[in-house]
Every structure is written in structure tokens, then in C-alpha cells.
Fold Pyruvate ferredoxin/flavodoxin oxidoreductase.
Amino acid sequence: MIRKEIRLSGSGGQGIILAAVTLADAALEAGFYGVQTQSYGPEARGGASKAEVIISDQPIDYPKVTTPDIVLALTAQAYAKYCDDINPGGTMIVEESLSADDCPESALRVPILGTAREVGKEIVANMVSLGVLAATLKKHIDKEFIEKSISKRVPPGTEELNIRAFQKGYDMIQ
Amino acid sequence: MIRKEIRLSGSGGQGIILAAVTLADAALEAGFYGVQTQSYGPEARGGASKAEVIISDQPIDYPKVTTPDIVLALTAQAYAKYCDDINPGGTMIVEESLSADDCPESALRVPILGTAREVGKEIVANMVSLGVLAATLKKHIDKEFIEKSISKRVPPGTEELNIRAFQKGYDMIQ
């Protein structure tokens, strides 16, 4: 059975919900079952927020992420907050410029924010992130599905910019 | 304890996820805990889809909607599919032009699609729907929170259109 629990995290306004919804859409098109969730609470206001996706080849009974297989963090606050329940064999992906004392030692450090700025706007950091996640999941979901979902989900006229950011993120991971 | 389980449903492309995320954002701002979820599976492809929000004044342990208090349906397929587990005391809201045999008798029938077209574009049916939901929830969440969330979540330049659609939906419910 394939079950992947994926957590995207950062601050509100970084477009992580859109990235997560896009990933879930693509998983559906690729034939998987999925659940996409965000939780809200007073602790989230003005601080770290996360969006989660569960992808499975079986119907998903329990929709809660318990031990994420992949955690991606775009801010120090999100990194510190959401790193600690990661599956020991899982993949921690963190924006290169960040560090956090209480997180597991091994993490994939990637220049997500810098790359987004290079592509043109820091606002596409979510799509760079999605590219990194797509490369991490490429054994299960062909990137074409994610590209198609991006084109469907981003505001009309912004498809090219967002796909370019996605590709840059994808290419970071060999 | 306040716990409201809300289900928005329709077809993919009708913007129901955005409406649900916007509602959850507003609930957070209003001081509630929330969980916002969509499930994906082969049965969803090309057909009915739903987006759910749980709003509570207590931390939410179980993130699954089991007995929705409010169900809103924009298509006949979604109506037929998602009406049957509604809380017996709950509110069924359905696009006026639809009917379904196996759904509970009493439903609030509202001209959501027609109103969206009047406002200018059928694509704002999700915001008309959000207005209807806001009016239904007004004892718990002041509509101002939802208007603020709309302005933050819709593509720049479309705020006025979307707020107008929202207000039309809100005004339908006395």
C-alpha cells in the first residue's frame, strides 16, 4: 500500500494551501485517493501555518496526518513548529536560509525563496516548493499531472510564471 | 460547545474549495478553531466534489465531518450525492433550479446560479454561496470577518465583484 503524508508549512500568505490543493488535484488525476486539509486555531494567527496532503492508493479512512513522510518549511517558525513528528525515514525539506535547533539533523536545504525571487517574484515560492515536492514524489506521480493542475488552479495569465517556478524547484532535486 | 460541520458541494471548477478556505480563514479571525478539508478519489473525477469546514470553539480532535449541520449543493449530482448524511436538524441549501428524489424534503432553495449571472459571471456562484452560508452562520461569525477574508483570497482586482456576489447571497436569507 502506498500512503504518503505530506506537510507544507510557512506563514499565511505564502500560498501553501494553493500548492497543497494543486498537489492533491494532481494525485487524483494520477489515480490516487487523497485528502487535503488545513487546521486553524488561535496559535496559527500571525504565525506558522500548514497545509497537508495525504495520498494513497487505497481509500483513506483516517484523514489526519500523524507521521508526515515529507515536511517542507518556508519559515523558521514553521520549521521549528512542524518538524518534530516527521517519520524518521522521511524527507525534511527546508528553505536554505533557515535553521532551527530542535529539528532533526538531516534536512534537504534548498534555495526556495532565492529561486522564487530569481524567477521574478517571491510570491511563487509556493510553486518552487511544489516543484521540489514533485521531484521527491516522482516515482508515484508524473510531473505532468502537477503541471496540468497548476495551469488549472493559478489565476489566468499567470500560468507561465508559475510553471517556470515549478520547474526550477523540480530541477533542484536529482 | 459550538461545533458546526459545513459541506459545500458542486462540480470541480465551481470554486467551492476557495469558498470553504475563505470561510475557515474568517472563522479563525473570529476566534474559532477550524479544519478545512477536501477528499479526492476516483469517484470525484468529472463529477461531484465537496469541500468541508468544521468550526468549533474547542480544539478539534476529530477532523472528519460525520453529520453536517449545513450542506450547500450547486449541482444535481452533488445534491444527490451529499445530502443524505445531513444532521436531521440541519440546514440543506440547494441551488433553486435543482431537484433530487432521494434527499430530505425540506431544503432552502435559493437562486444562486441566477444571482451569480446577474452580478456578472457564473464563476462567482461560490461567493453567492458563501454569502448564503454567512447569513446562516451570522449568530457565530460576523459577516465582516468573511468579507475581509474574501478580499485577501480572491485574485487582485476582483475583490469588488466577489464582495458584491457575497452580499447578494447574504441578503437572500432573512
